[in-house]
Design goal:
Helix content: 10-25%
Oligomer: single chain
Shape: globular
Number of strands: 9
Number of helices: 4
Order of helices and strands: HEEEEEEHEHHEE
């Protein structure tokens, strides 16, 4: 991997407009000008709960922090970054045959690469915010993508422009859930470890790359990241993590309770990450 500085997500130059918009909405909400709706679910397998960021070892679990509120808030909107692959910045993988899949570790179509790393299964539960997070959004769709163990994004980064791994679409089931089999992403320069996702109203909308309902990012707790990055292949992530925190990340610094995944498992058996996504 090249030692030069990555421009993944392009730092503040790409993300500051999104951050300013979110902070302005929260400011207006604080004075009663803009209503906020959001979610706190009671489902322990997919909702956010209190997280420990230190003192954990391999095989331990970390959970997302909960606001403790019974109110339901929509998932915070975030930038898709410069490598979405949804047609908004060059290549559009969503219209390619084979993108609808559960296992995203390998490329599909004419590409044959496979992403190596600690196994990770991601389950997102999409719910209707207007219902108080009580109603699953069956028949919606989620497009999910993230970087590989080296911090590279398929389709865009040097050396993997011909690959399309770590990208996929799933339709939500009766529980509003989608599940992806993947690998734990790296921590690259300037960004906290994260996963991008877009929610669409239907599978047809997703595969036509139209009518995005929500765009956001999932974050990981520090203790889990530290454990994973102590394994072979994640060497640079250790250094990058040492320069970051959730509180200083240019995306999550204005709040991450709704985006911090509940993560369980071990390096040996792999991890599961779950998050409730109110839309």
């Amino acid at each position: 991997m090249s030692e030069e500085l990555h421009d993944h997500d392009r730092g503040l130059s790409f993300d500051l407009p999104t951050l300013q918009r979110r902070k302005m909405i929260r400011l207006l909400a604080g004075v009663g000008l803009v209503p906020l709706v959001g979610c706190s679910s009671d489902d322990s397998d997919s909702s956010a709960s209190s997280a420990s960021s230190s003192g954990s070892s391999a095989g331990s679990s970390s959970s997302a922090a909960s606001s403790g509120s019974a109110e339901c808030e929509t998932i915070p909107g975030e930038t898709a970054g410069p490598y979405p692959g949804d047609g908004s910045n060059g290549v559009n993988v969503l219209k390619e045959s084979g993108v609808v899949r559960k296992d995203i570790t390998s490329s599909f179509g004419t590409a044959s690469g496979k992403a190596e790393g600690v196994p990770l299964t991601v389950t997102l539960t999409v719910v209707d915010a207007a219902s108080g997070c009580d109603t699953p959004k069956e028949g919606a769709a989620v497009y999910l993508w993230h970087c590989d163990r080296d911090g590279n994004y398929s389709l865009y980064s040097e050396g993997v422009t011909e690959e399309n791994y770590l990208r996929g679409v799933q339709e939500t089931d009766a529980k509003g859930q989608v599940t992806f089999t993947s690998i734990f992403p790296a921590c690259y320069t300037g960004r906290w470890p994260h996963i991008h996702f877009e929610v669409y109203g239907s599978l047809e909308d997703a595969t036509n790359a139209t009518s995005i309902t929500a765009t956001s990012q999932l974050a990981f707790a520090k203790d889990v990241c530290d454990t994973v990055y102590a394994t072979d292949g994640y060497d640079r992530s250790v250094q990058n993590m040492g320069q970051l925190s959730l509180e200083t990340d240019n995306i999550f610094s204005d709040g991450y309770d709704q985006q911090l995944a509940t993560t369980k498992g071990s390096v040996e058996k792999g991890y599961t990450a779950t998050l409730t996504v109110p839309v």
